[in-house]
Amino acid sequence: MIYHDSFAYDEVDTHQTTNTTTEQKSTANANVELDKVFMKSRDSFLKIAELILSLLVFLCITSDPWFSYVGGGWVQFNSLSCMITVLILWILLLFRAIYKLPGFWMLYILIHYAVYLVLYLISFLVCAIQAGKYRENGGLIASTVFCFIILIVLAIDTFFQVRRWQESGAKISVRTTTNSTETTHETEAEYFSVD
């Protein structure tokens, strides 16, 4: 099984001796290097599609400067912010740097996709309403179509992220604490479990 299918972004091993605590990532995810498996994965292709579609939405909406005053600024902001955040996420995953960062990355990614689903739904509605008013503007129609397509791609990516999270037992991260006399397993998913 590929590590992307197990979604092990936040596995942390903590070894505690009498006075010292060290956190180490699992050895499979410790190196920051180019991940050739991720490059060929469905996740990578979905993120590349999101990048390209966000760029197309931005270019189409920017083709008419007047539209910036009637909702185009919102669509421009949304497409650029989505493009930047997906690019950063894709680079972190591509070079496996996400495993070096602290935090609940599975939860962060799920929140990211949920937020951008709502933002692109609003952008799609803005573009569709304005395209209905100004039918001679091809940029509005094209941006409406691309907003709808990226909305579908984001929904597919969100579906796979949620499914992966559920398959992992809704774990966000696992922390193992080892004392000099006993071993305790503490799972942070208890605080964020899905019932």
UniProtKB/TrEMBL annotation:
The chain crosses the membrane at residues 48-67, 73-95, 107-132, 138-160. This is MARVEL domain-containing protein. It comes from the Eukaryota. Residues 38-166 form the MARVEL domain. It is found in: Membrane. It holds the Pfam family MARVEL. It is a multi-pass membrane protein. Keywords: Membrane, Transmembrane, Transmembrane helix. Its main location: membrane. It comes from Mytilus coruscus (Sea mussel). One of its GO terms (cellular component) is membrane.
